[in-house]
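Morning F.,

Quick status update on the modeling queue. The single chain you submitted on Monday has been processed. Sequence for confirmation:
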Amino acid sequence: MTLPSTDEKLSQALTRLLTGQPTRTNGELTVTNLCLEAGVGRDSFYRSPIKDHFAACRANADTNEPETTRLREEIRQLTATRKAERADHSRTLRELEELLRSYANQIQALALDNHHLAAENTRLLRQLDNPPNGVRTLHRGP
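Structure tokens below.
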């Protein structure tokens, strides 16, 4: 006979293993994993009435093993795909940020060039408006 708190820990651990939400193990339905999940010793498990329920769940899991294996493999593949997509997304984001910095630098350089050209244009227009002595101004276009 075990303490009610031990039975409760074992029951909660079994629920986590059956729902695929282990907190301390790889999630396989074994006595070792159940005891690790519950934080109790194997001797406590074997004295607990949970052992009969565990045996029934284990037998049921064995009959569903191909489906469970397939689903675990699918989860593994989806996790790997998600990891690859995140890495690709991060790489693309870094490339776009670099492109944005490059465009900002080019815009800044062009704005500076435009400023210099505008100043040069203003200087040349003033020179046309005030020709040096002896120079006649011809018709100026629009």
